[in-house]
Automatic annotation (TrEMBL):
Source organism, top-level taxon: Bacteria
Keyword Lyase among UniProt keywords: yes
Organism encoding this protein: Streptomyces ureilyticus
Top-level EC class as recorded in UniProt: lyase
Cross-referenced SUPFAM superfamilies: Metallo-dependent hydrolases
Pathway: Secondary metabolite metabolism; quinolate metabolism
Alphabetical keyword list: Decarboxylase, Lyase, Metal-binding, Zinc
Keyword Metal-binding on entry: yes
Assembly notes: Monomer.
EC number: 4.1.1.45
Transmembrane segments: none
PANTHER family the UniProt entry points to: 2-AMINO-3-CARBOXYLMUCONATE-6-SEMIALDEHYDE DECARBOXYLASE (PTHR21240), 2-AMINO-3-CARBOXYMUCONATE-6-SEMIALDEHYDE DECARBOXYLASE (PTHR21240:SF27)
Designated name of the protein: 2-amino-3-carboxymuconate-6-semialdehyde decarboxylase
Family as reported in the entry's similarity comment: Belongs to the metallo-dependent hydrolases superfamily. ACMSD family.
Length: 350
């Protein structure tokens, strides 16, 4: 089976000087220790220890070969978004990062597929940025799930999403910038609880605000981390929509009525969770995603899917087929696989 990982991060070898394109003092940069390890930095602050696969495409492809991954759709790390910066500097920064991503992927073009980032704090600049990036070779765009108080249903953001639909740019939404709370400061609870809540919040805002009614159906939208808490709490949201007019006032359909408007990755790490995810979303809307190469990611890409109760056709859909269609990767597949038809949920039985 071909294996395509759609949730994999890159931090190019960006120097402290390069980071000043975005900010004078606390921009994101990479400290390479020269021994295969390094540190993601924010100015003088150490953010996260990392290994060479994050910035070295040769090391990455070697690890992909060892892990049995054929293609990665790669995106920058959220630390690099720059949504709080001056728009002009953020736009220049995104152009710089996007070129770094193209250069990185050009070292292994049959294995690495780039997504761009954009200055989402300004709609016009973000639209111009994604247009340039798609023309240059990016297969889509990676965005955070909110910009300060603006969630995905905010008019400025839906305008950008509409532009992505017109451009044919797939949008990967990653949770980030979780609310600071003393209760989540220990045990990585901001990641374990906050990220799931952020994604759940964004999907519900798109549904309940009526934003899905305003955004073209052509938009190709993918949420990381299995859609966060959304699949598990969908019944609660639907029940609230049916029983309370203040919940359904802006949405003609319950949240479950919009399941055909987005996709999710498979980064849920548990067979019961994967089964629920597929039951809710359908086999045509779940894609392999690992959060590689970070420690909270899936250590054996695809192992969870292969061990599931899905039949071989369903496993193929999650491991590669859905990604091929969503990101337009037919040109990277062997000729014999390039004409694989689209699979519907009913065709891929468990």
């Amino acid at each position: 089976m071909t294996v395509i990982d759609v949730h994999a991060h890159v931090f190019p070898r960006i120097s402290r000087t390069d980071a000043r394109v975005l900010r004078d003092h606390d921009g994101p940069w990479l400290r390479d220790h020269g021994d295969g390890t390094g540190m993601m930095m924010a100015g003088d602050t150490e953010y996260r220890p990392v290994t060479a696969a994050l910035w070295d495409p040769a090391a990455r492809v070697a690890e992909m070969d060892a892990l049995g991954v054929d293609i990665q759709v790669v995106s920058s790390t959220p630390l690099m978004f720059g949504y709080d910066a001056d728009v002009a500097r953020a736009a220049a920064w995104c152009d710089y990062v996007n070129q770094q991503m193209l250069d990185y992927c050009a070292q292994a073009p049959n294995h690495l597929v780039p997504l761009c980032q954009v200055p989402l704090q300004d709609t016009e600049a973000a639209c111009e940025s994604v247009t340039r990036a798609v023309r240059a070779g990016h297969r889509g765009v990676h965005i955070g799930n909110h910009v300060g108080p603006r969630d995905l249903d905010h008019g400025a953001v839906t305008e950008f999403l509409t532009h992505c639909a017109i451009e044919g740019a797939t949008v990967l939404v990653h949770p980030w910038d979780m609310a600071h709370d003393p209760r989540t400061e220990e045990y990585m609870l901001a990641w374990l609880v906050g990220m799931s809540a952020e994604t759940h919040l964004s999907i519900l805002r798109l549904a309940l605000s009526g934003a899905f009614e305003r955004i073209p159906r052509e938009l190709k939208l993918l949420f990381a981390h299995g859609g966060g808490a959304f699949p598990y709490l969908l019944g609660r949201a639907d029940n609230a929509w049916r029983r309370r007019d203040i919940v359904r006032k802006d949405s003609p359909l319950p949240p479950s009525g919009y399941l055909d408007r987005f996709h999710v990755d498979s980064a849920v790490f548990d067979q019961h969770s994967l089964r629920l995810l597929v039951d809710v979303m359908g086999t045509d809307r779940v894609l392999l995603g690992t959060d590689y190469p970070f420690p909270l990611g899936e250590a054996e890409p695809g192992a969870l899917i292969r061990a599931s109760r899905l039949n071989p056709t369903g496993q193929n859909a999650l491991l590669a087929g859905n990604a091929v269609r969503l990101f337009g990767l037919q040109d990277l597949l062997p000729t014999t696989l390039q004409t694989t038809p689209a699979l519907s949920t009913t065709e891929v039985s468990r």
